[in-house]
Design goal:
The complex is a heterodimer of chains A (370) and B (126). Chain A is built from 8 helices and 12 strands. Chain A is of the alpha+beta class and 370 residues long. In chain A, strands 2-1-5-4-3 form a 5-stranded antiparallel β-sheet, with helices on both faces. In chain A, strands 7-9-10-12-11 form a 5-stranded mixed β-sheet, with helices on one face. In chain A, β3 and β4 form a beta hairpin. Chain A is elongated and about 115 Å long. Chain A starts with a helix and ends in an 8-residue tail after the last strand. By secondary structure, chain B is α/β, with parallel strands linked by helices. A 5-stranded parallel β-sheet of chain B has the order 2-1-3-4-5. In chain B, β1, α1 and β2 form a beta-alpha-beta unit. In chain B, α2 packs parallel to α3. Chain B is globular. The chains are: A alpha+beta (370), B alpha/beta (126).
Chain lengths: 370, 126
């Protein structure tokens, strides 16, 4: 056997090995010439789209691609061949089975000793199963959100009736005899139902945020008046744990916001300050400059550890353990409301020294009626 | 009783909510007429005397709250168009179009104190 024959045999073997590697994964490997024209593709890929090895070189690949992918892939490939950068693309090929198959194509330029591109080589990876699993996951999340939304809505009607009846019971009981057992019991029942209403509203808000954006109904709102109202609503709760709430700022701060959502921001931050404030004084400041209104809520309670601060505005995240009740949705909802208004929320806190929440809202002019 | 202030028309399809609201407002000294939807409300409004205030749910069968409002406000010369309305609804973020047509919007779940306070503003008892 001459050296030349030995070299040819070795080359053939090596080629067989690479073809073998290509056939062992769907949909194999591919090579192109320096100009990016296909010269080889694995059998599995050729079988998928129904062409022969010989047809490869002159084949118009755009015809086999999904119409939404064809133009982009062609342009990107042209650009890739021009620059010699790495090729990576997900696109869909029409199979002989009549279905589109999502494929991840990857490849690199192979250069000669002068550094010029001599070939291109890469793989075509079948990602149909991954894509299908992704879709199933998305469907599962959508189903969860839809279920949550329907469940919360269905719960709301009987809860509204129950809540109303408890309020009436309490009014009648305290009118007849304010100190009676019945008056105390109905006040307790009302507190529990208030909590249910709050939790359900949180769930409804989260589903609203997930399914669509928060729809704001903007009107003229005095932030300071909203704070005064919010403080009076939690006065009893604060008194019970011994927290004194003070309000700084003696000027109205009027902006164009959604009044119900502004009340929600105030109520949420106040409720947190009371919940985590360890009975110490709570200080609220309402102020404004030319362009922004600011609401500052300061408690002197347990504080939030530094590593927890970035995540407290995420869904289902809580700075504390399970010993304090709640779904962990309050601050998430507050952030969504603030951001929907074009504002910002931040926290400044040190463990054991309390927390300062800062909400900044734009003082935009009334929008033109549409 | 004709001419006495404090006559309310309560339009709400949920019977439990309606009867509880009626009891609560009775207790405050208001005189309540009930309707289960917008159509029934129009029938009730055809019988004198006219109420001093309408409490109106939005999501109702047959004729909903939006339907009743546009029916009432169609002819501004009609006395029906001038009866103040407080909307009591769970659909807080879909009331944009009617905000300017009604006196107030109260969110469900209803806080009685808040509702009574709002009613007293537009329909004070002597």
């Amino acid at each position: 056997m001459t050296d030349q024959m030995r070299a040819i045999t070795a080359l053939r073997q090596s080629e067989q090995i690479y073809r073998g590697i290509g056939e062992s994964l769907d949909f194999g490997i591919w090579t192109c010439d320096a100009k990016g024209r296909n010269v080889y593709a694995s059998e599995s890929f050729l079988k998928l789209i129904g062409i022969t090895q010989e047809q490869c070189a002159g084949f118009n690949w755009a015809n086999a691609l999904h119409p939404d992918d064809a133009a982009d892939t062609s342009a990107a490939w042209k650009e890739c061949v021009r620059t010699g950068s790495k090729w990576e693309r997900v696109h869909r090929y029409l199979g002989v089975d009549g279905r589109y198959h999502p494929i991840l194509a990857r490849g690199v330029a192979i250069r000669n000793e002068r550094g010029e591109i001599a070939h291109w080589a890469g793989i075509n990876l079948d990602i149909g199963e991954i894509k299908e699993t992704e879709q199933q996951l998305r469907d599962a999340v959508t189903a969860r959100d839809e279920f949550l939304s329907i469940a919360a809505h269905e719960l709301k009607t009987p809860l509204t009736a129950l809540h109303l009846q408890l309020q009436l019971m309490g009014r009648i009981a305290s009118k007849e005899n304010a100190g009676s057992k019945l008056a105390t019991l109905s006040s307790g029942a009302l507190q529990a139902s208030n909590q249910l209403v709050r939790l359900l509203d949180e769930l409804l808000d989260v589903t609203k945020i997930r399914v669509s954006k928060l729809a704001l109904e903007k009107h003229e709102v005095d932030l300071r008046a909203a704070v005064i109202e919010g403080v009076s609503a939690v006065a009893e709760e604060a008194r019970q744990i011994g927290s004194v709430i003070s309000i700084n700022g003696d000027q109205p701060v009027v902006g164009y916001w959604d009044p119900a959502r502004i009340n929600q921001i105030v109520a949420n931050l106040l409720s947190n300050a009371i919940k985590y404030g360890e009975g110490k004084p709570i200080e609220i400041t309402v102020e404004a400059d030319q362009a922004h209104a600011r609401l500052l809520v300061l408690d002197r309670g347990m504080g939030i550890p530094l590593e927890k601060q970035p995540v407290i505005f995420e869904r289902f995240e809580r700075a504390t353990g399970p010993q304090i009740s709640g779904l962990g949705l309050g601050l998430y909802i507050v952030r969504q409301i603030v951001e929907a208004h074009g504002g910002l929320i931040a926290v400044d806190s040190e463990l054991g020294k309390g927390a300062l929440f800062i909400v900044e809202l734009p003082l935009s002019e009334r929008e033109e009626a549409t | 009783m004709t001419g006495r202030p404090g006559k309310l028309l309560l339009v709400e399809d949920n019977a439990v909510i309606r009867s509880t609201l009626k009891d609560a407002l009775d207790l405050e000294g208001y005189e309540i007429r009930e309707a289960g939807n917008g159509r029934e409300a129009l029938d009730a409004l055809a019988q004198p005397p006219l109420p001093n205030l309408i409490l109106l749910d939005l999501l109702m069968p047959v004729m909903d709250g939006w339907g009743l409002i546009s029916e009432l406000k169609r002819d501004p010369g009609n006395p029906l168009a001038n009866i103040p309305i407080i909307v009591v609804s769970a659909v807080g973020d879909r009331t944009h179009g009617i905000r300017s047509l009604v006196q107030d919007v109260i969110q469900k779940p209803i806080m009685l104190d808040k509702l009574i306070h709002a009613i007293q503003r537009f329909c004070p008892l002597p």
